[in-house]
Amino acid sequence: MSTSGRISVTADNIFPIIKKFLYSDHEIFLRELISNAVDATTKLKTLASIGEFKGELGDLTISVKTDKNKKTITISDRGVGMTADEIRRYINEVAFSGAEEFVNKYKDKAGDAGIIGHFGLGFYSAFMVADKVEIFTKSWTQTDEEEGTHWECTGTPDFVMKPIEKKDRGTDIVLHISSDSTEFLEEYRIRELLKKYCRFLPVPIQFGTKEITEKDEKGKEIKKTVPDIVNNPSPAWIKKPSELTHEDYINFYRELYPLSFEEPLFYIHLNVDYPFNLTGILYFPKIKPLMEPSRNKIQLYQNQVFVTDSLEGVVPEFLTLLHGVIDSRDIPLNVSRSYLQSDANVKKISSHITKKVADKLEEMFKNSREDFEQKWNDIKIFIEYGMLSEEKFYERARKFALFPTTDGKFHTLDELRKNLMDRHIDKEGHLVLLYASDKDGQYAYIQKAKDSGHTVLFLDSPLTAHLINKLEYKQDDKLRFARVDAGPLDQLIPKKDQTKLSILSQKQKDDLRDLVAKNVDKEKFTVRVEDLSSSDEPFLITQPEFMRRMKEMNMMGGGFYGSGNLPESFDLIVNANHPVSQKILESTDSEQQKQLIQHCTELAMLQQNLLKGEALTDFVRRNIALLAK
Questions:
Q1: Could you tell me the pTM of the whole model?
Q2: Alpha carbon distance 184, 72 (integer Å)
Q3: CATH architecture group of domain 236-367
Q4: Which of 232, 282, 401, 559 has its CA 20 to 30 A from that of 73?
Q5: DSSP character for 292?
C-alpha cells in the first residue's frame, strides 16, 4: 500500500553537523551573531521610519564583551528583540529565518531594508565554539511592565525557556566558550575578527574602551576614556560618487590598506541597482613588471558584511590584481569559494565588473591619452594579463593597449599597422614588428635597425612572449613579431626579389663553416655561414625566436612542456662577405685561424651579453695586451 507524507527534519543529530560542517571556518560565528544584531537594529530603524515604532531609538550601538574568568562572550543589541513566541518560531524551529519573514512583510513599504540574514542558521553557528548558549531578550512590542525571555541550550535538542525581568528592549546572546575554543576569549583574537568581518557593518560596534586626549576650555590636555567603536558604519562605497572627492577616495584606500605607501593610480566607483545590486570601489595599484603582484586585495561584502578576500575563480583572474571592495546583496553570504563560483549572480557581476574596467581604461585612453601613456608602465601588466586570460577584455583592450618604441613613443596595434606598412612588410605580406627587451644589452641591434629606417618596439614585460604569441594567432598570420637580435635584418624581414652578393663560393662557405665549428663550443653554437653586408659584424650570435620565446613562456607558466629545461643554444652566424672570413680561409697557420675565430666569437658574445665573469676579464686582458704590442 502506498503512502504519502512530509519528510520531517529532526534536531537529534543537527548539532554535531552544525559544529563541524555548517561553515568552513569556526571563526565565522562572530560574524553571524553580530550580523543578527545588525539585522535586529536595522529592523527597528525601519519600523521607526515607517511610523510603526514611535518610541525613542536611543543609542543603537552593538556591544561585544569577553570575560576570561567566566569564559563567556556576550553580544548585545538594542534592536527589535524577541517575544517568547518569536523565540519558539525563530530559534526553536531550525532554519526558519526571521529576516526572510520581515523582508516579505515590509518589502512594499521599505524594500529589503538592508537585512543581512536569509537562512536562519546563523544563530546556531554559536555552537561551533560554545558548550552552552543563553539568550536574554525583550521585544519592542512589549511594555515596560512585561517580562522578557531567557532561553538556554547546551548543544542538544533540549532547551529551557523562562520569563525574566528585563527593562529595555533588545537581545543579549551569551556564549559559554568550550575548552577547545578558548582562543576566542583573547581580546586580540576578537579584535582581529571584528576588523576582518565587521569592519564596515552599518551599525556602530563597541569592543571595550580606549583613551583619547582632548583639550578642556583652558586648552589643557586631559585624558578621557571613551567607547572603542571598531567599525566604520558609513564607508565610501555606499555613498554616491557625487558625494565624494578625490581625497575621500584616497583616504578610503588608506583605510583599506594602512600599510600601503603608494597611492593608487586611479579608481572605479561601481554603483548598479539593475539588473542586480552592486556597489564598490576598485583601485588600480602600481604593478612593478618584475615583481609578483599582490592578490587577495579585493574584499567581497554582502550588505557591508565581509564574505571573503579570496576571489580567484570568482572573478576573472586578471581582476584579482586590483584592490578595493565589491558589495552586493545578490551575493550569497557563504564563505565557500566553490559555492560562489557556481552562483549565477556572481557570474553576472563578474562580467559587469570586467566591462566597467574596460570602459574606464578606454575612457582614459580617449580623453587623456598623454596621461594614459604616462601610466602605461604601471598598468601594462594588468592590461596584458587581462588580454591573455579574458577574451571579452581582449577584444576591448585591442583599442587601447599600447606598444612603446625604443624612442619613447607609444602606438596602438592599429596605428603600427597604418604607419609601418612600407618597410616592415615581408615577402609573404606579413607585418613584422621588431622589438627589443633590453635597451642596453641589445643597443647595437636596435641602432642597426633604426639606421636602416626601421621602428623597434620596447617590450620588456614578463608577459611579452605570451602576448605576442596570442596577437600573432588572433591576427590570422598577418602579423609577426621578431626580436631585433634574433637574426640579421634581411632575415627578420625578408623582402621579395631580395638578392644577395656572395664573395665566397659554396665550397669556401662549407670550409669556413667547418673551420669555425671545429674551434667553438658545439654544444652551445650551431654555425651558419650567411651572405651579409661587408659592413656587418664578422660574427653574429642569435637565438631562434621560437625556442627563445618558448623558454620565456615556460618561465612565466605556459609554453611547451619541458621547454624551460632545454639547454641554452645559439646560432653563430659567420658573415661570408666580411674580410675576416677571407682572412680565416686564406691563413695557413691553424693557431692564427683559431685565435681569429675565438676573437670574433667573443666579440659576438660580448654584443649578446653572453661573455661574463672570468671569460670577460680574460678577453679584456688579451685585448689590452694586443694593443700594447
A1: 0.74
A2: 9
A3: 2-Layer Sandwich (3.30)
A4: 232
A5: P
Q: Is 77 known to sit in a ligand binding site?
A: yes
320 is in an annotated binding site: no
By DSSP bridging, strand 62-67 and strand 205-215 are parallel
DSSP β-ladder status, 205-215 and 305-308? unpaired
Report phi then psi at 340, rounded to 5.
-65, -40
**Dist. CA 299–CA 200, nearest whole Å:** 11
Counting other chains too, the contacts that 516-523 makes at CB distance below 8 Å and 24 or more residues apart are 516/572, 516/574, 516/584, 516/597, 516/601, 519/593, 519/594, 519/597, 519/598, 520/572, 520/597, 520/601, 523/567, 523/569
Pick 14-209's CATH classification: 2.40.10.240, 3.10.180.10, 3.30.565.10, 3.60.21.10. 3.30.565.10
Grid coordinates belonging to 112: 529589503
* Rounded Cα gap, residues 534 and 580, in angstroms: 10
Rounded Cα distance between 169 and 193, Å, is: 27
Could you tell me the sign of the dihedral formed by the alpha carbons of 464, 470, 474, 477, in that order? Answer: positive
Is 586 assigned to a binding site? no
What is the structure's pLDDT at 4? 43
| Spatial separation of the C-alpha atoms in residues 88 and 476, rounded to whole Å | 68
Any binding-site annotation on 350?
no
Please check if 39 is assigned to a binding site.
Answer: no
What pLDDT does 96 receive?
A: 46
The CATH H-level (homologous superfamily) assignment of domain 506-628 is Heat shock protein 90, C-terminal domain (1.20.120.790)
Residue 305 phi, psi (nearest 5)? -100, 125
Residue 405 DSSP one-character state: B
Largest CA distance in the chain: 121
Q: Which pLDDT score, from 0 to 100, does residue 245 have?
A: 96
**pLDDT averaged per 10 residues in sequence order, the chain, 629 residues:** 42 58 74 93 93 93 97 97 91 58 51 46 85 96 93 88 94 96 96 94 95 83 92 95 95 91 90 86 78 69 86 80 89 60 75 91 95 93 92 93 95 91 83 91 88 93 90 82 86 77 88 91 88 84 75 61 57 90 89 90 83 76 69
Beta bridge partners of 222: 214
Cell of 374: 604616462
Is 82 annotated as a binding-site member? Answer: yes
Give the residue extent of every domain in the chain: 14-209, 236-367, 402-492, 506-628
581 annotated to bind ligand: no
Does 422 appear as a known binding residue?
no
CA distance 205 to 606: 66
How far is it, in rounded angstroms, from Cα 361 to Cα 24? 38
According to DSSP, the residues that pair with 348 across neighbouring strands are none
The angle formed by the CA atoms of residues 136, 138 and 144, to the nearest 5 degrees, is 130
Long-range (24+ apart) CB contacts under 8 A made by 357-362 are: 357/268, 357/282, 357/319, 357/322, 357/386, 357/393, 358/392, 358/393, 358/396, 358/397, 360/266, 360/268, 361/396, 361/397, 361/400, 362/396, 362/399, 362/400
